[in-house]
Amino acid sequence: MKIAYIINQFPPNITAGLGRYAEEITPHLTEGHRLSVFTLNDGHQPVHERRDSVTVYRPLGRLLGAIGRRRRLNRTRRTEFALLALNVMVSNWRYFLRLRRAAERPDLVTVHDSTNILSGLLCHYALRLPIVFHVHTTEYGIAPRRGTVDPFGLVAAAERWLGRIARRVVVATPEVREQLIAAGWNRKTIEVVPLGGTFERVLADPAFDREELRSGAAALRDRLGIPAEDKILLFVGRIERQKGVYQLLDAMPRIAAAVPGLRLVIVGEGDEAGVRRIVGSAGLDGRVMTSGGWVEGRELLEYYEMADACVFPSLFEPFGLVATEAMALARPVILGDGFSRIFIGDDPARPAVRFVRSTDPDDIADTVIEVMTNPALRRALAARGERHVREELSWARTAEETLTVYRAALEGSGA
Q1: Domain-wise residue ranges, the chain
Q2: Pairing between strand 333-336 and 108-112?
Q3: CB-based contact 326:333 (threshold 8 Å)
Q4: I need a labelling partner for 84 at 20 to 30 A (CA). Which of 41, 64, 180, 213 fits?
């Protein structure tokens, strides 16, 4: 199969879960298939590249390229989000032009997320190429609680349009499928393909040394000034409303009173100024700290290893790779009800994670206090979570099921 892969992030440009998805799944997709990736340029990457048996095209505009070379744009800030959106639109047009001029047509075009709708529509109507639409996020047009306002419903309408013409729509959880169906999408074309664990390759590497990671985590704790006897509650994600971070901060006075010495460490970029204001007004100085921006690679592993438990109280998540990251490293995990129930595991009576009501700070506080004050519960959640990710969530299986969807789209057969 010759696959044109249109996605906003591709290694080494990884700034969110979408980039991690691309990094993990593409090595499996290239086994016996030809992959041409069309992606954004952060200002530092070559326009054309052959990368690990993948052909990569990254168009570079002068203005946005100059901005990107100075610093990475932060999508949680309105002006920078607008610049990113402009870059996406211009790049979408260039992807289409590149495909139109190509000497060899792809068998299939896969469009990842609503931000690439323009190229999907152009490839369908102008080039008559079959489209598969991957819905990785519903925050713009579908989710009942949106991270970005869509007052005229234009994004939702465009998403439905591409979903209608696509031969298949791929989502990561049954909850997103039902969300799309409720919004008027065609049930027959929607396929659920769960994702794998972000750290799957790292943990499977024979050279991986857990003791060395523990040493790095201890050194990180020292740099942050957290005493060895204090418990650490870890949040990883963008600092914005949809991630439930403000409800978590509202819950922190009760948590801090019930668990002396506990520190909340927030890892991610976004509204750090808002966090500081809330922390100051709540008298939580010294009990809450932030990473100062995006964290990846070895340092992110050290943050997880340092944690006694992790909490991700998202209002909604199309999948939520942070859950697989923490579970894979055997960290006890607390999830908001915006996450899929696939993380519970096979036995609801012995769940692999604990769920909370994302909009209820008291429920968040009650659950965090229970987990942080019960060592046996933490050990049980850690063991069940690690086993669930290791046994049930595999990128090899994700890629195999994804390719099955692609073949069905080309054959025009039923779902």
Answers
A1: 2-196+394-411, 207-392
A2: unpaired
A3: yes
A4: 180
Structure confidence at residue 74 (pLDDT)? 55
Query: For residue 109, what are its two tokens?
Result: 């075009």
CA-CA-CA-CA dihedral for 68, 70, 71, 75, to nearest 10: -40
pLDDT digits (tens, 9 = 90+) for 363-406: 999 999 999 999 999 999 999 999 999 999 999 999 999 999 99
CATH code that applies to domain 207-392: 3.40.50.2000
b vs e for 367-388, b when ≥16 Cβ sit within 10 Å of the residue's Cβ? Answer: bbbebbeeeeebeebbebbbeb
254/287 Cα distance (integer angstroms)? 12
Name the residue with tokens 């949680």: 76
User: What pTM was computed for the model?
Assistant: 0.86
**Each residue's pLDDT tens digit, 63-78:** 555 555 555 555 556 6
Task: Please provide the DSSP assignment of 75-116 as one string.
Answer: TTSHHHHHHHHHHHHHHHHHHHHHHHH-SS--SEEEEESGGG
Q: Are 37 and 58 within 8 A, CB to CB?
A: no
Using alpha carbons, select from 139, 154, 12 the residue that is nearest to residue 72: 12
Cα–Cα dist 353/331, whole Å:
10
| H or E stretch covering 363 | helix 361-372
d(CA 274, CA 262): 21
pLDDT score at 151: 60
Q: What CATH code is assigned to 2-196+394-411?
A: 3.40.50.2000
Pairing of strands 108-112, 2-6: parallel
378 Cβ contact list (under 8 Å, min separation 6): 308, 309, 332, 371, 372
Residue 66 has what pLDDT?
A: 55
Peptide bond connecting 260 to the previous residue in cis, omega within 30 degrees of 0 = no
| Cα distance between residue 221 and residue 219, in whole Å | 5
Would the CATH topology of 2-196+394-411 be identical to that of 207-392? Answer: yes
